[in-house]
Amino acid sequence: MNKSRQHLIQRNHIWYARLSIPKDVRAKLGRKREYIQSLKTGDINTAEVRKNLLIAEWKNAINMARGSASAIESKAIRLRNDDSSSSDRVDPLTGMSDKDYYAESIAESLDDNEQEQFYNYYTGRVGTPFEYFAEDFIKYTYPNPKTAQDVRSSLKMFAEFCPTLTDVKKRKVLKWLETETRARNTVSKKFSHLSNYWKYLQSRELVDIDLHPFYGVDLPKSLRKTESREPFTDQEIKSIFEELEKLSDDVLTAACSIAIYTGARVSEIGALKVDDVVTLEGVKCIQINNAKTSAGNRIVPIHPKLLYLIFELLQGNEDEFLISKLKTKRDAKDRGDIISKRFARLVRSKLELPKSKVFHSFRNTVATKLESAGIPENIAADIIGHDKDTMTYGLYSGGTSIKQRYEAIKKIGYYL
Q: Within a domain: residue 416?
């Protein structure tokens, strides 16, 4: 037989694929002697392509019928990942989708042990890469792009210790913690991401609901404490802007200028767009969206000393972002990271400021200025983007007015 036409027959000018079913598995595969299916074409080249897909599927079914672990895993995972529209249709009486019914029909052809193996893979309980459900979890839990990236990094890191979900055990968690040399707050945050991911998997019955590898685990006492961030002094801010003038770094100058009069996070500043400059109640404002927390989504009036810079940024804009000269081949969410790294080089190499002085210190600085000016904490919280802890302001209040915030913002001053 011509090898290129193996597993092919022609009937009435139409090609069919065919494959003999071995005797030892015929009982499990409907007692048929062979698979045969029309390829719906009279063209031999098209038939060859379509045939290969069917033959691979049929051979996999034969291997499954023989109890091949690799074939069962392959079929189960492929079916689990089927995103076709028909797989989402759900029977209202049983709550089962078309995909579930198909999986059930496959399982019925297997013996008890093989069925358990198939369902373990189909549900994702066994043999699934640790990060397999990461994007679903992140999309469901962390809408903020910056936080989402932090979570993604945490899961990727832990996957080196536990490549699959079945590898996750308390001893592996402890082994990871023994290797950690980062600051306690950093490790604590990563631990929280991992614990939340596991809870998400348990809530969807993707892992054993009785297995709690992250419960009751304490962080090592040897982890160093995170160095607290300190506000800048007026003299330090003066030195920063003098150095920026020497460097002619317009991007970093704009970012720092916005920071000292708004207290915005670097990620928030990097993500600001032209459309985020708005006028409300007769006051020019910056609208911050997609912040790290819900309280971070806020409207900050523009300080009088910042108005001209904002006008210049709008006039010289080259793209959708307010600070448009920040060029990056990476995603928009990384713009803040680029600003932060450039600022770190400035304060460490040029000004030799301590590690407690970082871009985030501008938030501390603005908070300090507002407190020194006697601004009520609830107004300051609405400017900085902090949660309000009290029942009255935190739960029931709709927030302070734009004019209240504007009057507070105007009291931020520097002796430069």
A: no
CB atoms within 10 A of CB 148: 18
Cα gap 187→48, rounded to integer Å:
55
Assess if residue 130 is contained within a domain.
no
Which DSSP state fits 413? -
Residue 169 within any structural domain of the chain:
yes
Choosing from 73, 88, 123, the residue where a domain stops is: 123
What confidence tens digit (pLDDT) does each residue in 391-400 have?
445 444 557 8
Task: Please name the residue that has the structure tokens 């045939």.
Answer: 51
Range with the poorest average pLDDT among 227-231, 284-288, 374-378, 409-413: 227-231
* DSSP 8-state secondary structure symbol assigned to residue 316: T
Find the CATH number of the domain harbouring 382: 1.10.443.10
More confident call, 111 vs 153? 153
CB 290 within 8 A of CB 221: no
* CB crowding 107-127: b at 16 or more within 10 Å, else e: bebbeeebbebbbbbbbbbbb
pLDDT for 1: 46
User: Domain check: are 96 and 158 in the same one?
Assistant: no
Q: How far is C-alpha 149 from the geometric centre of its chain's CA atoms? A: 5
The DSSP H or E segment spanning 54 is helix 44-65
Averaged pLDDT, 121-146: 79
Judge contact between 75 and 119, C-beta under 8 A.
Answer: no
Are 162 and 305 found together in one domain? no
357 Cβ neighbours under 8 A, 6+ residues apart: 229, 230, 232, 236, 347
The DSSP call for residue 349 is I
The structural domain count of the chain equals 3
Please give the backbone phi and psi of residue 10, each rounded to the nearest 5 degrees, phi first. Answer: -120, 130
Higher pLDDT, 221 or 407: 407
Q: At what angle do helices 250-262 and 307-315 cross, to 10 degrees?
A: 140
Per the structure, the complete domain to which residue 394 belongs is given by: 234-409
Counting Cα atoms < 13 Å in the Cβ hemisphere of 235 gives: 2
Among 49, 58, 75, which residue's Cα sits nearest to residue 21? Answer: 58
pTM above 0.85, yes or no: no
pLDDT in tens, 170-225: 999 999 999 888 888 889 999 999 999 999 988 877 788 889 999 999 988 888 77
Whether 135 is in a domain gets the answer: no
What value does the mean pLDDT of the chain take?
Answer: 83
